[in-house]
Amino acid sequence: MSIHWLGSAPGARMLTFYPLDLRKVNVTTTRFWERAPAVRREAGAAERVVVSERPAHTEHTIEAGRHSERLLAIENVSLEYRSRERIVRATQDVSFDVYGADRFVLLGPSGCGKSTLLKAIAGFVEPVSGSISLAGEPVRGPGADRVVVFQEFDQLPPWKTVAENVAFPLRVARKLPRAEARERALHYLDKVGLAAFADAYPHTLSGGMKQRVAIARALAMQPRVLLMDEPFAALDALTRRKMQEELLRLWDDARFTLLFVTHSIEEALVVGNRILLLSPHPGRVRAEVNSHAYSHASMGGVDFRESLARIHRLLFDTDTDTDTETEAVKEASR
What we know:
Elements: E1 2-6, E2 14-17, E3 48-52, E4 70-82, E5 87-99, E6 103-107, H1 114-122, E7 129-134, E8 137-138, E9 146-149, H2 162-172, H3 178-191, H4 207-220, E10 225-229, H5 237-254, E11 258-262, H6 265-271, E12 274-278, E13 285-290, H7 302-316, H8 320-333
Parallel strand pairs: 3-13, 6-11, 6-12, 9-10, 10-11
Antiparallel strand pairs: 1-2, 1-3, 4-5, 4-7, 7-8, 12-13
Helix pairs in contact: 2-3, 2-4, 3-4
């Protein structure tokens, strides 16, 4: 693992240290995946750490930021919402870029503003400052180019069959004829393994099956970005893992752009190829992590456990700069 620490003051020094086993060093780290301008500091920007891991290759490997042009740009976005007592600042000056076919994960503790940030990208919440743009155009409201999958199981109208649930937004937003909408709905239901339940009603489905319908409905819209707000959080552990595997299989097949919100470090490492770490409330950028080489097969391995522990420290340790310097000294003395 290599870490580049960029201090908060203009002209601050960069501490770089490498493990003794240089075979594990990701040589792309010094250029940060060659095409990720969000990590470059400007005067006055928040502190930022870049962590890069390179375990064994997996079928879901894509070098972050090296496969397409920038699709989504978040620039110094601050978000607020009103509670009964006061106005609450949800995020503070958050910036990042998402590239085509990225599996980009927003990771942070409860209350850090990650779901609010996703809603802002969907067009449901307007930033109090900063900008959000998709393919160079500012986001000014909801649109069919961004589709959200929520964690709640009741997001499917109960009076419509499974196929009708998937086809409905195609007819409303995409203006497809009824026959064409049903054909596309059946295609994506087959993709998620629910073709046999096309004429069933939501109340006959399990929680995992309802989420697969919601994913099929979202993918059928063929959005520029698929937004998923903790979609598997309410599922049991076995079903959650199966849904993660199915999501990755769908991504392998279609290579859609995914923005995924979670508070699980393990899920972030498995699902994402890039992870943005947000601090406790209000959410600020703590780090960006390249996790493209991890999969379920990596769980339990030494590299995976070390990355999990390091991300936990980056999320919750307020003395990160001190710890980083201490660790660098230890490495140098070996």
